[in-house]
Amino acid sequence: MNAPLRRVGVVIMVLFGLLFVNLNWVQGYKAEEYRTSDYNGRVQVAEYDRQRGNIEAGARALATSTPTDGELQYLRTYPDNELYAHVIGYKPVNLAATGVEKAENEFLAGTSDQLFADRVRDLFTGEETGGGNVLLTINRRAQETAYRQLLDNRVGVDVGAAVALNPRTGALQALVSLPSFDPNPLASHDTGAAQEAYNELDSDPNRPLNNRALGEVLPPGSTFKVVVAAAALENGTTVETPISAGPVYRHPDSGTDIRNAVDSICPQDEVTLITALTDSCNTGFAKLGVELGAETVKAKARDFGFEDEELVVGRTSGDDGLPVAASRTGDIANPDGSEDGAALAQSSIGQNNVRMTPLEGAMIAAAVANGGSQMRPYVIQQLLHADRTSSYYTADPRELRQSVSGSVAADLQEMMVSVVRNGTGRNARIDGYTVGGKTGTAQAGEGDEDHGWFIGFVTSEDGEPISAVCVLLEGAGGGGSAEAARIAGQIMRALVAEREGR
User: Fold this and answer.
1) What pLDDT, on the 0 to 100 scale, is given for residue 323?
2) What DSSP state is assigned to residue 339?
3) Does residue 17 lie within any of the structural domains?
């Protein structure tokens, strides 16, 4: 064989070798990715040969599949329309799934390894056993109250969020994001109509598809003072320790004054720590944060969950679930790396570059109510077999971190209870129960209305934590934090009433 033919033969052998390697790569390593891709139309159509399992809360189906006469044998429907949209998400034919529909897709579809025995049995019976059922932790009464109260808020805003969770376990009791959306058009078998419905929602400037409860990060305003107070308590300050206050404070490196909301708030040179939190003394907490130092404030924020980039809300294992944006304190540093005192003063009152999700706000309140122990938030309570005879998973609550010591948590509880009894959080009071909280009014930017926040908790007379709540009203302006406190009180009241069997 002459040299040119040998070279051609070698090239052909190399090409066949590369083809063989690529084939094995696809079959061995990429097959699962291609099979489960949201854009694999054949797989999606095949999924409709098997009835998808229900998503339920409180014995009510929030997502179910009903038989049809079309090529796709089952239609995914959402009986409550907008009410649970940001929790359960939606499962479309040719778009990407979201929410619990995405997080538990394999179990709902019947393709999970946990349902392998069902599929083997189907090979012999010729049947198509339905997918598994997902039971949520959501309390229907609390969810409906949160949604209605946000929708009918008294300051006329269209954008906001509310989260409630059980401080002892981390189980989500309510999760609402406004504006919401109806998942039903997105699950239509008319893929053109579904795409049109999605495009309309996606182009809405109020971003109804965004889960603000988990994904919106905004300045938390004075709610962040709870974190600074915790840092102070752990560094020698007591509830009754006088701290510097006054009507105005300007850091030596700043050209901007920090003032209190009204002149009657802590005009004196010193106030106790509990008074500073009760009356929401900006000057006092700005000075306190500077005294503590940026690293101390940032470290305590991390203890409460700031900077956590791995948190998801799903099962208690925390592997898969609804994604959660990380709350941040910002660098609080000059370009040369030294501490920026002026920025620290602003950060200590929840401004500057501090950003927080509503979930994080609820988790702060929950840790305080639970003796300093912050539990992992979760929304999946149980995974049930298609015939509901057995459970493949039941939630096992887990501690996420110890945010503060028990003694500091007790001091924070006392201070937050004072906020509700004597200060800015009075709208959240519930007769016969102990309610603690902290309001927050956060500057949104020049020309924009302030955001209104409230974080809080309710406990029984014997101190048993019942719920921790965060409410956010975006661009609410004056009165926004008071209205957030009122809505939070209504959500907690709904949970109290259910606990009492009313």
Assistant:
1) 96
2) B
3) no
Tens digits of residue pLDDT in 77-87: 999 999 999 99
**C-alpha dihedral over 280, 283, 287, 288, to 10 degrees?**
-10
Q: What is the pLDDT of residues 180-194, one digit of tens each?
A: 999 999 999 999 999
Half-sphere exposure of 305 (CA within 13 A, CB side): 31
Q: Are strands 172-178 and 242-244 parallel, antiparallel or unpaired?
A: unpaired
Least confident of 75-84, 276-285, 344-353, 438-447: 438-447
The tokens for 392 are: 């493949």
CA 252/CA 232 separation, integer angstroms: 22
Dihedral-angle region of residue 493 (phi above 0 means left; psi in -120 to 50 means alpha; beta otherwise):
alpha
* CATH (domain of 466): 3.40.710.10
The residue assigned the tokens 């239509």 is 188
CA atoms of 146 and 152, how far apart (whole Å): 10
The 8 Å CB, 24+ separation contacts for 301-305 are 301/224, 301/227, 301/327, 301/329, 303/230, 303/401, 303/402, 303/403, 303/404, 304/227, 304/230, 304/360, 304/363, 304/364, 304/367, 304/374, 304/403, 305/360, 305/363, 305/364, 305/374, 305/400, 305/401, 305/403
Q: How far apart are CA 419 and CA 26, in angstroms?
A: 61
Residue 487 is assigned to a structural domain of this protein: yes
User: Residue 412 is encoded by which pair of tokens?
Assistant: 């924070």
- 222 an active-site residue? yes
Number of independent structural domains in the chain: 1
In a domain, 442, yes or no: yes
Q: Give the active site residue among 180, 222, 403, 481.
A: 222
Q: How far is CA 249 from the centre of its chain?
A: 34
Domain of residue 252: give its range.
215-378+399-499
Residue 357 lies in a domain: yes
